[in-house]
Fold this sequence. Notes:
It is built from seven helices and 33 strands. The strands form eight sheets. An eight-stranded parallel β-barrel has the order 21-22-23-24-25-28-30-31, surrounded by four helices. A six-stranded antiparallel beta sheet has the order 3-2-4-9-6-7, covered by helices on one side. The protein folds into three domains: 3-208, Galactose-binding domain-like (Jelly Rolls, Sandwich), CATH 2.60.120.260; 212-300, Immunoglobulin-like, CATH 2.60.40; 305-607, Glycosidases (TIM Barrel), CATH 3.20.20.80. With 611 residues, the chain is α/β, with parallel strands linked by helices. The protein has helices spanning 3-19, 338-350, 365-374, 393-410, 429-445, 533-547, 592-607; strands spanning 36-39, 42-49, 91-94, 111-118, 127-132, 138-143, 146-152, 158-161, 171-178, 203-208, 212-220, 227-235, 242-247, 252-257, 263-269, 283-288, 293-298, 303-306, 309-312, 315-316, 319-324, 355-358, 377-381, 416-423, 450-455, 458-462, 465-470, 481-484, 500-504, 510-514, 553-556, 564-565, 578-579. The longest helix has 18 residues, at 393-410. Helix 4 links the parallel strand 23 and strand 24 (416-423). Helix content is 17%, strand content 30%. It binds alpha-D-glucopyranuronic acid (GCU). Alpha-D-glucopyranuronic acid is lined by residues 192, 360, 423-424, 484, 514, 559, 579, 581.
Amino acid sequence: MSNTLRCLTLALSLPLLAARGAAQVAPLIANIAARQTTSLDGEWQAIVDPYDVGALDYRAQPLKNNHAFYMNYKPQSESELIEYDFDTSGQLHVPGDWNTQRESLLFYEGSVWYKRSFDYAKSPKNRLFLHFGACNYLAAVYLNGEELGEHEGGFTPFDFEITDRVRAHGNFLVLRINNSRGRDQVPTVNTDWWNYGGITRPVTLVEVPETFVQDYFVQLEKGSTHQIRGWLQLNGKQLQQNATIRIPEAGLSKTFQTDSGGRAEFSFNADLTLWSPENPKLYSVEIVGETDQVIEWIGFRSIEVRGTDILLNGKSVFLRGISIHEEAPMRPGRAWSDDDARTLLSWARGLDCNFIRLAHYPHNESMLRMADQMGLMVWAEVPVYWTIQWESPQTLRNAENQLNAMIARDHNRSALIIYSVANETPVSDARNRFLRQLIQDAHSADPTRLVSAALQANEVVERNRITIHIHDPIANDLDVLGNNEYIGWYVRRPEDADLIEWTSEYSKPLIMSEFGGDARFGYHADARTRWTEEYQENLYEHQIAMLKRIPFLRGMTPWILKDFRSPRRTLPRLEDYFNRKGLVSDQGEKKKAYFVLQKFYRELQSAQPSK
Length: 611
Ligand code: GCU
């Protein structure tokens, strides 16, 4: 669908929302898995609709009658004209991208309508919400022929309350998902990853008491290893309650009063075994109100920077990382499940990583919970990637919404240590203002974690010395500096890394957030032959030798764990629409460079001072 038509759809459908008093996106409910839930995953009926005829008439005006697909209308006589029928239009599996479910949809960008029916017997006084793990990119949600609302952003969860709209029998839920790219969107039109569209994460009905525990934050206070500071938020009518935080294994039980807005803030001393990659200790934490309670596994650790050092629980740590895209490890398409997360993170663990960069957007919640359990620290990021429309207020709001939703969903995950607000963004005044706003948002939403961005340093050649100097107008606003470089692939030869010195004008830690080169698994020749495993192996050897010489380097996340699909990578036989910088092929085969990195990390690990 053209960008104009899409904007028209967006613009036209918004008044529709107001007109019908449609629901708006509800506040995010924390820890869905711990609630009373009913899964709506499975086979949904689906209609592929490249011209949005399910929403717009031939004058591109919104359809307000039974011709609109969300009405799921059936002809009442043999003469009635209706040109759609979910029941005979085929199915798509939810969760899952549509691109890898049908050959005809591999490159598809446009609208697909999904529909499923369900019955639901809600307990009389309870409330009912629809929860979506994520839909890429724009979702319009309809229940029983009425629009609930829209959500923009392909990688963050959203909820709608349907307490007063759900029936005991015969509900029909319809979503229009549009994954068209747009200049003003986040990300914008140009990315180096596949534009997987669809209901890409689980869909769940969540039943809660009239007044329920909506969200909470239970972590160690910034810079402390024995003081818990947090808050909890109730939602409903009976907002002033006694609320208790219990950590039975630590012998803790603290009771507070929530205020008239349903919020309580708390701080108390706690003698805890701290979470770390070596000992990923999680505690059962009970958040108990008078009308609702939630139990959550939470780890406690402190993360901070001191000069150019990063301290985990007060001790210097080197982040032995790897970058990961959210692609399933052993099948095509988006990852979303516990099994996907377990396999991807076990590959990272196999490298002897203690750190992962979940690029370039918020990954599914299973990845964060599995990182908590497996002891892998996490760099999470929003898709503020490359040439974002820095001057657009709606683009900034969109980026802020995605950042806040990512923080709201994951702020109790001890593994999560860094929020990144940008990747390789061209420097300008407008970009600096935009990113400073996001950095400020992250610090105020969660003062306990570090904020970074993947920057691009500048090369300076003087006589025969090559210096790469880290300088960026937003560097002073960041806690940790990320930097992407491709010495040996996009610039220079791998051997040139031996001549390069790195300098920085900031007393801040550096994480080399990307480096690497492509190799087609099984393609072997000498180290000068591009695309071979030997070229990639040689590149890693020279890169690692260079990185070892950077005194303010405190981590690295080479690009990338696994080959991944990209529309930019068209070279037949070598790329075939895959970016081949993975250390593991898209079939799970380990390339020679995998073992170069593994050897380096094992040396680092054995050189670490004993705990
Ligand atoms: C960039 C970018 C990645 C991209 C990589 C590459 O640094 O951040 O998203 O995939 O380079 O060119 O392979």
